[in-house]
Amino acid sequence: MFNQDITPYQNISILILISFAFQSILMPLLLYEIDGPVGWISIVLAAIIIYFALKPINRVLKKYGEDTIIGIGERVFPKFISKIAGIYYILMFLTANSILMKDFSEQIKLMMLFNTPLNAIIIVILITSAYAAKKGIQPIANIASIAILTSLVPYLLIIIFSTYYADYSNILPVFPADVQGIVKTVPGTMLGFFGFSILLFSNSRVSAKEKNITISRRFIVISSVLYIACYLLIVVKFGMKEAVHLVWPFISVMKFVNIPGFFFESTEIVGLCFQIIVTFTCICIIAYFTNLAMQETFKTRENGYFIYIQIPILYTAAAALPGMYMMFPYIQWPIVIISILNYLIPLTASMLDKRRER
Amino acid sequence: MRNIKILLIILTVMLMTGCWDSAEINKREYLFAVGIDKNLKDLTFTSEIPKINEGSEEQRLVYTKEGTNFADFYSTSYLHSEKAISDRLMQVIVIGEDTARSPETLKKIFDEIQRSPQMNRRVKICIAKGKAEDIIKTEIPSDPIVGRFLSEMLIKLKRESYQDIYTFDEAILHLGQTGNAMVPVVEVNEKSLKIERAAIIKEYELVGFLEPMEVEAIMLLVNPKRANIRNINIEVDDTTVALGAVDVSMSKDINLNGSSLSADYYITLYCYIDSFIVGDDRLNDKEFMKKIKEEAAKKVSSAASDTINKLQGSYRADLLKIKNDLSKYHKTDFGKIEDKYDEVFEAANINVHVNVDIRSTGLVK
């Protein structure tokens, strides 16, 4: 019907943006699970693990051109397993999106709209993002590529300003490092690279597919640098003792910002406005790829109308779920399981395909 | 269909603005300063509200209300005024001496500010010598709004690095990291207020006060690059010489051997001669200059040592942030003595070695 291809730049924007949103949500996990400011080692390990999986995964994605991971799964897995994998991705995207929406709406309520009911905020976000998601990948990809420049960069600049009066020695001590804590947080950190799960779908929509491997690698490198920089920023600003208590470290960083000559009364509100655009774009992205996963699993010609199925599910889940910070004590194992599945499903598909070739 | 969509969008925009419960600026009362004192039962909040809405910037309202916490104070204020109370422009929180001496109360106050999404963490903080209410109620002829007066004074002192902590976020970070903090003390000074001394807060409890010279000595050891040192007045061969330090360099050597802690600070002060005697040419004499340097070094060193002794012996409060250094650079050894750090700090061998270098004699020899 329409040309639904995206450019490699739009693809990398989507991947970086979506990873950034989940990295900020999962940051408290990295801060309080590890004794000492060595969470960056966990990020490096997670990035390396994902980096090595990119080559085989991209090989199989390139081979089947227009197919997403679900389409490839149908070719290499038994039918039953491929259906389960498809349903898994749908449920995973729905859960991730509802958590993102809940966390985001709670931030807006607490910081900006104190008297507005949480449900009203969720509905507004949901309706707006549903409209964007229904229009297909191109508008979302356009929003993502613009959001990177207009929101993520100024948002990061505001956070960087907060390093004024920071104690850089807070990044010490590195040794002796809490090895157990680092190992324990690697799955959670891998989940922070949420773009890894998205690229399994988005790469098939890129116009220049030969660039996918380079784009995927660049995404991991840029995203890890961003992740490490944000982690260190929080550590130098607060120190580990204070950082472990924070529910939303990024919002708290902005509450500490004192930009010379800044004329806004509350810097955190300005930062939050940028974050609204970033998170809103991420919600649209996940909603679209949930549609795509549903289309491929249920074998339909269109995917736009799946958003009407998503809306009640997302609303109910977002309204019912507690905030991410309230769930941390209970989601240690689910995080490990989701992280392993996200990593192993595409890798297994790639290995089975290679075996079939022989 | 298209019209319905447009209508829906317009309705959504109008209904979801979040401004349906807005209060105009002239219907608000902005708190500029709040003083918190402890009474027999609860806390006494003394708030200062400038009459900014009535075009008279130099007039203010002062309310005193009792409450258990900030939330209580706000809800009581809400019921006692026709206007909406707002803390968005809060400049300074003054904590009364009695309140600061009660760790439980201070912890509650800090927790509430830290937890609140609305309250500004960059609000300035100081401890009142005596009652916070007296500070807030002080009538200053030159600047009647106490919140503004204190805020501007604290900003000025911060710029000159006279003390270490000025804002709530700095206080909470210091107390969290080391358990100790040095908070400015505000006192009534005839028809005005002054901030000279500092309060020693240890584990959220006011344990003592530091005199201006002691504050200076601590700042020299904690933040030598930005430390603001006043004139060093010394007597050399029955003549008074005044030196002004223009630059400071410092290195430190902290060692932990079992439970034995030692810290050596090596400070070099680069000074100018500020005042001597007209016509006296002894400043050309190398021996005389040497005596000036030795005498100045002795004076600074002795002031620093006395302050350190006071911190070690009287308060066992590590305002020098040695604990912070140990936790970062000697993590394993520090882990073994962390629980008894106060005793280790009290028995520590801390030395200050001062060297004075005279860079210039000013515009005349």
Short description:
The complex is a heterodimer of chains A (358) and B (365). Chain A has 358 residues and is mainly alpha-helical.
Structural commentary:
- The complex is a heterodimer of chains A (358) and B (365).
- The model of chain A has no long low-confidence stretch (mean pLDDT 87).
- Chain A is mainly α and 358 residues long.
- In chain A, α1 (8-33) runs parallel beside α9, α3 (69-76) packs antiparallel against α4 (79-111) and α7 (179-192) crosses α14.
- Chain A has 14 helices and no strands.
- Chain B is built from twelve helices and 14 strands.
- The model of chain B has no long low-confidence stretch (mean pLDDT 87).
- In chain B, the strands form three sheets. Chain B has an eight-stranded mixed beta sheet, with helices on both faces.
- Chain B has helices spanning 2-15, 70-80, 97-100, 103-115, 132-136, 146-159, 168-178, 212-222, 286-315, 322-329, 331-337, 341-346; strands at residues 28-30, 33-38, 43-50, 60-67, 84-86, 92-95, 124-128, 180-189, 192-202, 205-210, 232-236, 239-257, 260-275, 349-360.
- The longest helix of chain B has 30 residues, at 286-315.
- In chain B, α8 (212-222) packs across α9 (286-315) and α10 crosses α11 (331-337).
- Chain B has 365 residues and is α/β, with parallel strands linked by helices.
- In chain B, a hairpin with a 2-residue loop joins β11 and β12 (239-257).
- The A-B interface holds A 36, 110-116, 120, 124, 127, 165, 169-170, 172-173, 175-176, 238-239, 241-242, 255-256, 258, 265-266 and B 12, 16, 18, 21, 88-89, 117-118, 120-122, 169-170, 172-173, 176-177, 324, 327-329, 331-332.
